[in-house]
Specification:
Helix content is about 45%, strand content about 15%. By secondary structure, the protein is of the alpha/beta class. The chain has two domains: about 100 residues, no CATH class; about 190 residues, 3-Layer(aba) Sandwich (Rossmann fold). Strands 6-5-7-8-9 form a five-stranded parallel sheet, sandwiched between helices. It has a two-stranded antiparallel sheet with strand order 1-2. Helix 3 packs parallel to helix 8 and helix 4 packs parallel to helix 8. The longest helix has 23 residues. The radius of gyration is 22 Å and the shape is elongated.
Amino acid sequence: MDAATLWQRYQDWLYYHEGLGFYLDISRMRFDDAFLGTMQPKFEKAFQEMDELEKGEIKNPDENRMVGHYWLRDADLAPTADLQQEIVKTLAEIEDFTEKVHTGAIHPAGMSKFTDIISIGIGGSALGPEFVAEALAPLSPPLAIHFIDNTDPAGIDAVLTKLADRLSSTLVLVISKSGGTPETRNGMIEVKKAYESINLEFAPHAVAITGRDSNLDKIAKTEGWLAMFPMYDWVGGRTSELSAVGLVPAALQGIKIREMLEGAKEMDAATRIPQIKENPAALLALSWYFSGNGKGEKDMVVLALQRQLATIFPLPTAVGDGIFG
């Protein structure tokens, strides 16, 4: 292509979202109008299925459940009034609990405030909170967070050794949707033993984030844990960051969770527009499909130039030449 053609293509295929300050340039992906025409019916079907999914249709037939993590950032989209109320209620409870911890209304025995958090979880119950802690937490958070995200004995010992002098002022978040995840259970047992070894009760330091009536929920209620927050069956682990899984640790670190939810809501709205050129997710999907010949022959990679984002775990996203201008 000559310079004039490339400039015109750049203008035609540059996406910009003013509210989010978000740019996406796919102009160097060399698909033509014929390819776009063949993709149009596929996208129309995808837009329709996305609409059905968000309205509560069963899209996980193996577990016979809805897929509704989108409702977490816009409760009005939830298909029933009960679900809407539960989302709003849980968010309010998280904010109330956080305020009481930050002000010292909830505090450890003999001390004015909690100083640290141990978050115990694995997979989606760990990766999201870790990502947000690295990317968004203030430099001097009200509570510093530490993660136990596998069953490595040395890793668990390292966290507990680091907190040896502050274990008595540390909150412990135990996160498991099923309430029976073996790795999470093992981490909880080891941390509980650490408290017992210095003659501290574990329950006044423990918070459960789990499905209602799960094994973990029952343990927390029986032992009288400090707090319990729900995980919903319609939220998958890998998409749970904007549920209590991610919002509780984020709020405790001083991250503005309402702003986080509003940003996600705004991006959700942008990616629901049923026109390819006006939808950044559709544009990325179009480019990835084209570059991988519709067979996933190429991987998508995101390279973040900001230190906080660049140090996170690798993300299975972005494509070949020229997607980000």
